[in-house]
Amino acid sequence: MGKFGKTLFGKLTGNDKSCCCCGPSIVSIRTIRVDGKEMNVAGLYEEFKKHFEAGKTSENIDAGELMQNLLKINVVSENELENFKAAILKEYVTYWQGNKH
């Protein structure tokens, strides 16, 4: 496979960083429950992984920092923001407990 093919494959599988001119890498979509309703959240796994690898435990995670990138790629209404944040933090606790060694 040539360089172009490897780059394209990386972008399609999300294993390659891309610049702003080429668009973002494909991110995961995960369904979580927010205030009793199901909501699809883009990039959740990638954000959790990034924070986990930075050593953020479920007790010392910075919710604002975690939410910053998620809100760039997910549309959340102002009146759902607090419930969304609570659901994301709850999901991170589950993710962290499942991945700690």
Compact overview of the structure:
The protein is built from 4 helices and 2 strands. The chain is mainly α and 101 residues long. The mean pLDDT is 83.
Describe the protein.
By secondary structure, this protein is mainly α. It has one domain (27-99). It is 50% helix and 12% strand. It has helices at 3-13, 44-53, 63-73, 81-99; strands at residues 29-34, 37-42. A two-stranded antiparallel sheet has the order 1-2. A hairpin with a 2-residue loop joins strand 1 (29-34) and strand 2. The radius of gyration is 15 Å and the shape is globular. The protein starts with a helix and ends with a helix. The model has no long low-confidence stretch (mean pLDDT 83).
Strand and helix map with partners:
Blueprint lengths: L2 H11 L15 E6 L2 E6 L1 H10 L9 H11 L7 H19 L2
Antiparallel strand pairs: 1-2
Radius of gyration: 15 Å
Total of helices: 4
- N- and C-termini, Cα separation: 37 Å
Trace the largest sheet across and list its strands: 1-2
Number of strands: 2
What structural class do you assign from the helix and strand content? Answer: mainly alpha
Q: H/E element string?
A: HEEHHH
Quote the average pLDDT. Answer: 83
**What fraction strand?**
5-15%
Q: Largest sheet at a glance?
A: 2 strands, antiparallel
Name the shape in a single word. Answer: globular
